[in-house]
Design brief:
This protein is of the alpha/beta class. It is 48% helix and 16% strand. It folds into two domains: 3-202, Alpha-Beta Complex (2-enoyl-CoA Hydratase, Chain A, domain 1), CATH 3.90.226; 206-252. It is built from eleven helices and eleven strands. The chain has a seven-stranded mixed sheet with strand order 1-2-3-4-6-8-11, with helices on both faces. A four-stranded mixed sheet has the order 5-7-9-10. A hairpin with a 2-residue loop joins strand 2 (8-13) and strand 3 (16-21). Helix 4 crosses helix 5 and helix 9 packs antiparallel against helix 10. This is Enoyl-CoA hydratase. Belongs to the enoyl-CoA hydratase/isomerase family.
Amino acid sequence: MPQTAEHLTITRHGHVAELALNRPEAMNAVSTALAEELAAACSELARDQDVRVTVLTSTHPKAFCVGADLKERNRFTDAELVRQRPTARAAYTGVLELPMPTIAAVHGYALGGGYELALACDLIVADPTAVVGLPEVSVGVIPGGGGTQLLPRRVGSARAAELIFSARRVAGAEALALGLVDRLAEEGQDRAEALELAAAMAAHSPVGLRNAKRALRLGEGLDLRAGLDVEDAAWRATAFSGDRAEGVAAFNEKRAPNWPGE
């Protein structure tokens, strides 16, 4: 049974949680209310040991998310904008810090803060209608949902600089070629392909998935020796878990594992 908030829906597909942006009247523009709901939903999912993979989707047929709600922000005083900032940051940080693998399913517009939500996920599955970009400098701001840090890690500093400074929007096939997205599904199939990929991942050890993600994330930006120490700590946390014992037993007994998730 889906859990529905005003602007979000959480649906469970076995061990996969689908977190759907659902503010169609504004193409899922991130308002204060949506940011609050997103942060709360991520906090809930982060604590749910039954969730092995999370997929971020959109209910709007022509947009993933068009970014910050500029109509709302146009009414803000400077003081109100300052007060709203921690709420916005909590939403993006909530997605970024989910402990399980995350996949964004993107079609239509994913611009500014909308593309930053996708960047906060581990993988991005898009369809040919996807249009992604960080155009914030064209309206007098800069990416503030992690874009200046996450995009260079994905495509390199020079390419990220070109895209951010030019405010250029990039469509499906070119976005795949530049590494702005990771897979290009058939038109209209981004959600289905992302859920299929998530289901395949969710068949694996939940302890392994979370610790592998932890090693990948914590190792970013470290030198090789420090990164290998991060990997070793994650390996030790996994190797002495109930999942490791079950995985080895299932392999030797030629059966599917029944992961304890401990």
